[in-house]
Amino acid sequence: MQRRQFLHVGLASFAASGTVVGSTALARDGAAGLIRRTIPSSGETIPVIGLGTSGPFEVGVDAAARAPLAEVLEGFFAGGGTLIDTSPMYSTAEDVLGDLLTPAMQTRAFVATKVWTRGEQEGIAQMNRSAQRMKRKVLDLVQVHNLLDLEVHLRTLRRWKDEGRVRYIGITHYTVAAQAQLAEVVAREKLDFVQFNYSATSPEAEQRLLPLCADRGVATLVNRAFDDGKVFAKLKDRPLPPWAAEIDCSSWAQLLLKFVISHPAVTAVIPATGKAKNLLDNLAGGRGRLPDATQRKAIVEAVRA
């Protein structure tokens, strides 16, 4: 089955079957484990729920400010998480991660960071600093942040990948307007990952970018699944639809996350949080039954009502 055909079939049937075949195959860490997806370029699997660091992890050295973040990291790994997304753009987030990740966490962590500067030497220096800050000899994933100086950094990243200094390479952006440009790059370049915004309130990536990534065998990371938290202001006083229980959801956050990961071309979603309670809620969105095509439409209608 071609990947594009798989997308159409998968959206209608894979949630009910519990498993699908193809580059986005599901696996589980046991009966209550997080759903996992396959990275097409390698066959490695990662949990569908990751952890973003933009915002909550941008704190100083104050122990009181860092304590909740240490609790979040403990809960994240205890709950089966591995993928953590960060960037030198996120002020102190890389430093905080490097200080708070224990040796045991480091052995399990799949750390994704970015290069966000102009010029070859500046990019190399920035990536070296990222590795040093996070105490990583090998970076799992480095993506060209917001496509800044793309060709220059891709040349460096391909060389670093050949040298074993980085395992995966990719590109990112965070706006719907940039998705056409992302698609152009995905169509012409050999990449492992692409990161972009996708949600029940902004589903435009379904039109071209997600199918293209499936066709090209590119893993996808989704940002802004909660529309930077704006959607909760709209939903906070609304009761959860009764049918949410049919897909094992007990919160709006879980419903929104399951909308994202129920698209078979999505590899993982990376909601940021600095609160253990919210982390546990997010992780629950990566377990249990997923919505089928009809339920996905109902989620969109519910959040737009």
Word description of this protein:
With 305 residues, the chain is an alpha/beta fold. It has one domain (3-304): NADP-dependent oxidoreductase domain (TIM Barrel, Alpha-Beta Barrel). The protein contains twelve helices and eleven strands. The strands form two sheets. It has an eight-stranded parallel β-sheet. A three-stranded antiparallel β-sheet has the order 1-2-3, with no helix packed on it. It is globular. The N and C termini lie far apart (37 Å). 47% of the residues are buried.
How is the quaternary structure best described?
A: single chain
What is the SS-derived class?
alpha/beta
Classified in CATH, the superfamily is: NADP-dependent oxidoreductase domain
Q: Identify low-pLDDT runs.
A: 1-6, 8-31
Major β-sheet profile: 8 strands, parallel
Helix content: 40-55%
CATH class: Alpha Beta
Number of strands: 11
Shape: globular
User: In percent, how much strand structure appears in the residues?
Assistant: 5-15%
Mean pLDDT: 91
Q: Number of domains in the coordinates?
A: 1
Task: Supply the number of helical segments.
Answer: 12
Task: Fill in the CATH topology.
Answer: TIM Barrel
Distance between the termini: 37 Å
Query: Which value, in Å, is the CA radius of gyration?
Result: 18 Å
Order of SSEs, N→C?
Answer: HEEEEHEHHEHEHEHEHEHHEHH
Q: Which strand order do you get reading across the main beta sheet?
A: 4-5-6-7-8-9-10-11
CATH architecture classification:
Alpha-Beta Barrel
